Amino acid sequence: MTSRISKTFPLAVSLALWAPMALGHGDTAPQAVDTTGLPELPAEMASENPWREADGAVLFKAVEIGAKGFNSNCARCHGLEAISGGLAPDLRFLEASDFGDEWYLDRILHGYEQNGAVKMPPFEGILNQQAIWAIRTYIETRPDADELAAQGTEIAALHDKVKALPPDAGADEAQALAAELESAGSGFEALSGAPRAVTVLDQAAHMLRSGASHAPAAAELIHGVLRK
C-alpha cells in the first residue's frame, strides 16, 4: 500500500503544478465549516491528524463534517468524493503520515500560486482547526471507489435489508444488522494507508447503532453509492 501511494501521489502533484485550475464541483469562494459536535482542539495547530486513530462517534463525526467541508471548498478542483478528474492531485492517495500531514497543512493554510495566478486559495483564518482536520480525516479514509462498485450486488442486498428494517425494530435486530454492515465494510482499505477506511456501510452501521429509527437515513446513504 505505501509504495503505491508514495509513487502515485507525487506524480499527481507534479502534474497539477503545470495544469490550469480544474473546473468542477463546489463553490469558488472559501467557506467556513460548522464543526459542532467535534471535540475542541488546542489553539496551537497540530502537526499531525489528531483523529487518525479515533474510534466511534469522533471518527464518524469528523468524516461527516469533513465531507461537508470538502464538498463546499475542495470538490470543485479535487473532485466529488476526492476522486480527481486528473488536473488536480487525487488526495485519496496522500499518505496518512507525517509527510502527508505536512503537505496538506501547507496547502490548506497557505494555498498555492503558479506564475502569479492563484490555483488554490489559502484557508487560514477561514477554517478552524477542527474543520481542517475533519477534511483531512474524510480524505484519508476514502476507500477505492472501484472496489466498492465491484461489490454492487452485495451492497444492494445490504441496502434492501436496511430499508426493510422497521423503525420500531428492537435494539437487538438493529445491532445485528449494524454488525453485518460493519463486517462488509471491514473488507475495504483506505487508499492513503490510513488505519481504516470509512465506507457508506460503516457510516450506515454507525447510524443503526443509535437505533432502528435511523434505518431510512442509513438506507438512503447506501443507496447513494448504488446510484453511481
UniProtKB/TrEMBL annotation:
Keyword Metal-binding: yes
Record keyword NADP present: no
Origin organism lineage: Bacteria, Pseudomonadati, Pseudomonadota, Alphaproteobacteria, Rhodobacterales
Annotated signal sequence range: 1-24
InterPro entries assigned: c550_proteobact (IPR030991), Cyt_c-like_dom (IPR009056), Cyt_c-like_dom_sf (IPR036909)
Name under which the protein is recorded: Cytochrome c-550 PedF
Key words of the record: Heme, Iron, Metal-binding, Signal
Cytochrome c domain mapped to chain residues: 61-143
